[in-house]
Write a structure and sequence with these properties.
Layout: H1 2-9, H2 14-20, H3 27-47, H4 56-72, H5 79-82, H6 86-91, H7 99-112
């Protein structure tokens, strides 16, 4: 498994990872979601620890399957829906106020003052 880990350390872009594992992908999907795909891949790797004594072939196939799963999460979905990063999870709790509601509340505040 050491050879695989050394090879992975040399990769930096989502496209490089996908090419390394021979996963077919749509460039447009990767372009928009590259960081999200890599972060989801990382999350999947943490959830699926590999045994230290597993073979290179098993490690390679496991990583390939997890990266493919991470990529497929974003086909027909979006970063906002998938909420990989904290900023998207936190945004769900944010409440918005419409301009109409603000305008309606303004005269009441002016009268109260």
């Amino acid at each position: 498994m050491e050879k695989l880990m050394q090879a992975l350390q040399k990769l930096s872009t989502a496209e490089e990872f996908l090419d390394f594992f021979a996963i077919e992908y749509q460039p447009a999907t990767v372009h928009v979601n590259r960081l999200h795909i890599l972060q989801r891949f990382h999350q999947y790797l943490r959830q699926t620890p590999l045994a230290a004594d597993c073979s290179e072939a098993v490690a390679h196939e496991t990583c390939r399957a997890l990266l493919d799963k991470a990529y497929r999460d974003f086909i027909g979905s979006s970063a906002v829906k998938e909420k990989v990063f904290k900023v998207f999870r936190d945004a769900e709790g944010v409440k918005t106020v419409s301009v109409e509601n603000l305008r309606a509340a303004l005269p009441q505040r002016q009268k109260a003052a």
